[in-house]
Amino acid sequence: METLTLDQLKYPTGKFSFNANADEKEIKQWIALMEEHPSQLRKAVKGLNDSQLDTPYRDGGWTVRQVVHHLADSHMNAYTRFKLALTEDHPTIKPYDEKLWAEMDDAKNLPVEISLSILDALHSRMVHMLKKISPSDYSKSVFHPESKREMSVKFLMNLYSWHGKHHAAQITFLRERSNW
Fold first, then answer.
1. N or C: more exposed end of the chain, with fewer CB within 10 A?
2. How far apart are CA 41 and CA 53, in angstroms?
């Protein structure tokens, strides 16, 4: 079996890279990826038993269960960030410690179906919202105080379209390596 680097295990689809020059066609692709994300994640975890769900996708990484719950946590925050950017004048967002959230009991023990259901509903709303905004909204932004960076709606669309695909790929990659 081929030895994989840590980056290959962490980033099976590659690291995130923002395309500031994305055109309308690419932005529509990002939204389509967000629309497909819940079904792709369901497909990635379909039929997994509790032992498999409690397997880390890499040494030192989160379990499949934690990844699914992380996606719900992260994308709930994303939805709020989009809403803030679109309705307020450059607001400062509230960061959260995703590693600590992933260590909480709900992320380690609840059935993944709970977060899959959240993602179904959340992505329906988020995608609907993003399909209705105008290109002038892409430059609206939030400020992230930890990274000390402005994050535009366009940046957030690119980031969260990658994020869902990235984590579903981690689970799929683990399934393939484990012959599940």
1. N
2. 13
The pLDDT of residue 33: 97
Burial (CB count <10 Å: 0-12, 13-18, 19+), residue 39:
middle
What tokens were used for 51? 């032992």
Closest to 108 measured CA to CA, from 54, 42, 41, 60: 54
Question: Of 54, 59, 83, 80, nearest to 69 (Cα)?
Answer: 54
- The low-confidence residues of the chain, meaning pLDDT below 50, are none
CATH number of 37-178: 1.20.120.450
Q: Is 143 helix (H, G, I), strand (E, B) or coil?
A: strand
What is the pTM for the complete model shown?
0.94
Q: Where exactly are the structural domains of the chain?
A: 37-178
Q: Report the distance separating Cα 99 and Cα 118, nearest Å.
A: 20
| 96 Rama class: left (phi>0) / alpha (psi -120 to 50) / beta | beta
Distance CA 47, CA 61 (A): 21
Token digits for 90?
Answer: 């450059």
